[in-house]
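so the lab meeting is tmrw and i was supposed to have these ready like two days ago... anyway. pasting both below. for each one the top line is the aa sequence and the line under it is the structure tokens. i havent really looked at them closely yet so no promises
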Amino acid sequence: MAKQVIEYAGVPVGIVVPDKGLLKFIAVKLHVHDLDGQHFASPSDVLRAIHKLMSASNAGVHRAA
């Protein structure tokens, strides 16, 4: 697998790249920066983590810079 763009609510928020047998998330938006550098088993796991982060912070994609 090559790099893959990860979108949340229709907005690109980062990419995943293969690393150590998993997928490493590289954030490109500040509101998901807490997940930057973390490893996930699948792109859907990344999306779940982003959703959890956004729900916990009560922030919206449209309010972020």
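ok protien two:
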Amino acid sequence: MTDLWLSTPTCALGPYRADLTETYWRWEQDPTLMIGYGRQAPESLEARTEGMAHQLRGANIRFTVYDPTGGDPVPVGVTTLLPDDSVRTAEFVVMLAREARGRGLGTEATRLTLDYAFHVSALRMV
């Protein structure tokens, strides 16, 4: 059973998970996502695995995005809040797998993440 923290009938957010490192890495190899992240070259799975441990310990707020519409929730992306605690603001990043795009999941994941940002983390601006 997948642990979901925030959900609507069409989208859910759950924990950022080490056991999904290879899945996250596969999504990140999409050239459109590489450009969005400012990378010019693919990253190796080994480098991504090393970076995952750092990310899990970091101060950024990360969620796995799920599509719950087919029974068991399926991971389809990640949202991230990069907070600046001194001024209670954050930068927001959303990444969706190519196969999850065009169905409104990005919009709904954004709504859920911003709800968390403002109502749970008490951020002033994202």
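from a quick look at the 2nd one: The mean pLDDT is 89. The helical segments are 21-28, 31-36, 45-57, 105-119. will dig more after coffe
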